[in-house]
């Protein structure tokens, strides 16, 4: 069976970068199809009809004998590519622990840290709606709680789960690495800083952005 | 190996109910330890020290020969209990598709639909902070998008993934079933209504709340 993958992405998105990390680490070639989310290029009827009705990136497109199929949601796409590799740990508890941090990332970490980065770096505070401006305090507070939980977890261990990099490290890496762009000084989180370096030193895991 | 489980929960929480669904379906006994989140009973130093530093429920506690271990995050706890059962489908694509909907649930569905339910039903609109009140419109809009995506998905299929109930149906069930408490009339979503009935008819999958 001949398999190929296309990543529908915006290169500025940390969610998209996660998938490139997994593919790079495993040596899987990805064809890139880039969209500019600031220009609404994923919010078109064509995107809904041909890629994903959720009108959001990333979407991993799988080409194989069954025809094109699509996986939205960054963490699910990472799982698909990583199945059978050492990025998913052996052991039932460790797998659940890895998923625990992956769900935490999508529920508590990304919606706050990534959204603030998007607003500060790409939209611009002056261009935010009043409704968005009103959410900055709550999002900042939850983001700090998330970073403190990571700092505490990493104070006594090298990796999020077990004794090597897993998908938990992968999915938490992009928006933690760019936390300064979300206005959270990483100097406040020394254990996170050491962990970021550790992830960067895993061969092929952090390709050029 | 003798195994036992304690679910640290608030009985009103749909996130906790997911875990009870999986345990009921698989015939796994759970010891219940209830907390009142409105009284801050999970926000204590004792809870942080003894159950979870994230100070949130649910937490699944595993008792076995290795001593007590804890899994926060409802969807990770569901995965732990369901490993090896038919709630996790065979087939790499179907597993990724199931995880896609589980991450969607935690990123897009639950933070909006469940939070609005909590505010309307348990906190009371009059008791919300100005910051919270300012978030109602955005949360309502995203919740409606999430429900429309589900409605569209279920218009042409009986189950979220494949041809039987999986964890994707389990984790999306609780806060969709109570969507009226979040002020979203289910009459607007007929395919969702038929799916809710289908889930309710799976033997043992929806124990008494």
UniProtKB/TrEMBL annotation, chains A, B:
PROSITE patterns: GST_CTER (PS50405), GST_NTER (PS50404). One of its GO terms (molecular function) is transferase activity. Keywords: Transferase. It comes from the Bacteria. Transmembrane segments: none annotated. Residues 3-89 form the GST N-terminal domain. Residues 91-209 form the GST C-terminal domain. This is Glutathione S-transferase family protein. It comes from Pontixanthobacter rizhaonensis.
């Amino acid at each position: 069976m001949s398999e190929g993958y296309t990543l529908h992405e915006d290169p500025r998105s940390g969610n998209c970068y996660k998938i490139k990390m997994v593919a790079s680490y495993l040596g899987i070639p990805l064809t890139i199809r880039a969209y500019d989310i600031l220009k609404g290029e994923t919010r078109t009827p064509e995107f809904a009809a041909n890629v994903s009705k959720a009108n959001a990136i990333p979407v991993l497109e799988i080409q194989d004998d069954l025809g094109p199929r699509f996986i939205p949601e960054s963490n699910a796409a990472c799982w698909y590519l990583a199945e059978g590799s050492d990025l998913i740990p052996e052991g039932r508890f460790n797998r659940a622990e890895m998923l625990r941090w992956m769900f935490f990332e999508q529920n508590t970490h990304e919606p706050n840290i990534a959204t603030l980065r998007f607003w500060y770096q790409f939209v611009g505070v002056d261009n935010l709606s009043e409704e968005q401006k009103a959410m900055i305090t709550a999002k900042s507070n939850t983001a700090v709680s998330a970073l403190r939980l990571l700092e505490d977890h990493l104070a006594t261990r090298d990796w999020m789960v077990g004794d090597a990099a897993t998908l938990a490290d992968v999915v938490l890496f992009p928006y933690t690495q760019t936390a300064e762009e979300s206005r959270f000084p990483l100097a406040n989180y020394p254990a996170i800083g050491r962990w970021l370096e550790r992830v960067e030193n895993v061969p092929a895991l952090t390709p050029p952005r």
